[in-house]
Design a protein that fits this description.
Length: 429
Amino acid sequence: MTTQKRVLAVIMGGGRGTRLHPLTTERCKPAVPLAGKYRLVDIPISNCLNSDINRIFLLTQFQTASLHRHVQGTYHFDAFGGGFVDILSAEQTEKGAHWYQGTADAVRRNLIHFRNFPHDLVLILSGDQLYRMDYRKIIEQHLATGADVTIAAVPFPVSKIAGLGLMQVHDDLAIERFVEKPKEQSVIDSLTLSAAVEARLATPSTERRCLASMGIYVFNRQAMADALDNTMTDFGKEIIPGLLGKKKLFAYIFEGYWEDIGTVRAFFEANLALAQPLPPFNFFDPTAPIYTQDRYLPASKLNKCAIDHVVIGDGSILTDSTLKHSVLGIRSYVGEGSSLEDTVLMGADYYETDDQLAANLARGRPHLGVGRNCRVKGAIIDKNARIGDGCVLNVEGKADGTYANGAVIIRDGVLVVPKGTTIPAGTVV
């Protein structure tokens, strides 16, 4: 069987996304905008399509409306290829009426849907990571080693492995131990790579390294059924450790760029990194494009702007403004005399008509986007926000908390204006 007919891909849409709040107030994690024009879910879906995998299930349960609209408006397959991206939300059944209790529980409750499609392997993916991977390589290794389960892993310096699941492997990459998010230094030290495994890596390091799980798994179909024949709810905490000694588990080492976008700070830094001259993640690779919705927007219009290391989404209008090290989403608007630095401006879902704009201004409601003579630094301004003239939003020197009567939230050291929020003219934070 070809890869296309042999593999089913399952993307975990995540839970409430509390660590990404307030970006997840009105949407689930996979639907969070990324890099000016994409959404987080476009990354694993595009990796699948570029790897000849086109049967994809997306498991979600919270705030799925915008995700549905995006997926349905983006991923269309011809009748002959058999491809699809199918969203499976938690649902009431004869066996239960509760939410997904964890990653393993979500997959277990959807096995009935997977069985309707011929497959030998199940590829489990996360919906909130930024990386580029050809899944055919991990599948090739999985088959070559005769593994029941293969786990993708990134070699991380010991100083940077906080909050990650770590594994100890033999020289042939067979997994001997798996510890979810260890904190004791003695445990971490015992999981560092052997000299033989270090020698296999393309990138040398002066610091000792561990293999950190990426949350990407390849399961044989029967191994998946066996692993889920219980009440365990989470892959990393329960399923994988429980399979040691019972199934053949191997690690697949991935040495490319990988970022787990689980927090506001991680999201902020991953976006701003894309404005660098040589960003760590390359959206410009023509051999493996990242797909997203084709919105048929006009080219962006810039009038008398000073721009330094900025990503600008389609359909934006920027006038006599200064932009530095920032990422602007589709339909972004920045008024005269304003400056943005270290800022992620997500743009808008629509353009205002002249009549709508006049009516809003008459009610004292600012234009969508950033108004005139504003100063913004160290911020994420979510979609459809309205920043009035003369506002100053600067995260420097401010502690996490709420500001401007709750309209502005600082979290992880990042100032966030939530989706659809209006900041009155003259507001200073």
